[in-house]
Specification:
By secondary structure, the chain is of the alpha/beta class. It has 2 domains: 137 residues, Enolase-like, N-terminal domain (Enolase-like, domain 1); 256 residues, TIM Barrel (Alpha-Beta Barrel), CATH 3.20.20.120. The strands form 4 sheets. Strands 7-8-9-10-11-12-13 form a 7-stranded parallel sheet, with helices on one face. A 3-stranded antiparallel sheet has the order 1-4-5. It has a two-stranded antiparallel sheet with strand order 2-3. Helix 9 links the parallel strand 8 and strand 9. Helix 3 crosses helix 5.
Amino acid sequence: MSLHRRDWLRLAAVGLVGAKTQSSVLAAQDGQAPLRITGLKVTPIALPDPPLLFAGGCHGPYFLRNVVELETDGKIIGIGETSGNRDVTDALERARAIVVGRNAFSYRELAREILPREPGAYAAIEMACLDACGKATGRRLCELVGGPVRDQVPVAAYLFYRYAADHPTVLADPRVSDARGRGVRALDDWGEVRTPEAMAAMAGKFRERWGFRSFKLKAGVLSPEAERDTLKAMVSTLGTDCLLRIDPNARWRTETAVRIGKELAGLPMEYYEDPVRGQTAMAEVRKATGLKMSTNMCVTRFAHLAEAFRRKPIDVLLTDLHYFGGFAGNLALGPIAEAAGWTLSQHSNNHAGISMAAMIHLAASLPQLTMASDTHYVWLPENADIIEGPKLPIQGGTMAIPNGPGLGVTLDRDKLARAHEVYRKCGMAKREDASLMRRLEPGWTGGLL
């Protein structure tokens, strides 16, 4: 007895023909969804964030995320994670009426109705669908989308200038709603890092602890000259076999970016990320410096690709599950990037272990994603993640595909409940980095340099 052609195509699209149980296949033959969605639970959470500095201000005291639990008629619950602003929470709540009653294996059908409204909401729902499908079939998520092309995924050190976690002004933030404090009660012991020498020392400790080979400096904080000198100090500490990245988050003027870029030419630069804003200025800097340029700011949607093909602003695209339409969108992006002559890496914002697992599965599945992925995961305190057990390990600058079906991680409900309670108490509804920065550095404006 053969599958109806429509059902065969649906299963083939996620690589599941031949992997289904007999009962699920028979259900599909009868016209019933093999994994019908019966409920969608959305939990906004707040997780502790140290005072990291970037062009837009100072992080903290929390970063926000939304956790999705997708319930199915097979008593299987798929989980997902996405950005935490209130508008994403609202979009996920509205999506409940769309997804309930639909087939988790047909997650691409949901994109038509959810993705145009809020890409981050679709990414979490697709992630939860794939997690449920993996649990239903005993397959890892990467196997559902074509199988891994690599078993170990390289990740980059993400280095921020910062204040000490127990700085008095940081602890006095009225949004702080947990038991953090001074000394041993601080979120971490990295201390203050606001000079080239301090950053170089921290980079050396990152390599010693996690084995990183690629090192990304979050710039747009000190003067451009000090940040240039920071890269030089990092080479003195790490050696010339390291790979460097610098990301001023478009805080530099074009003339500044060209001047500093030319002065970086002798360093082991992997890429120069978003020193200026917009594709036109990026293309100008690329032509003037000869450096490989990357972005997660001027090319973040498929709609941006046509202009990028014309203007040629980049060599490296930092893709993101939450920007480019989840796994389906990123897998489609790969051959396009290859045809454009671009290499892929992954953008990161603050995230917990569910998103980290998803990023590993994507990097393992996408052939064109050959550069080490960014991740903020090292900045999440060890006991603050929301998955069962310890945080996912980074060893030798790489992360292994999590074992187990689906994402390969399990939601810790006690940790989730605590993170939701902090969200409720702290009063944060969206990311806002300028207020703490102005308390730390009165008169700060974040203007162009």
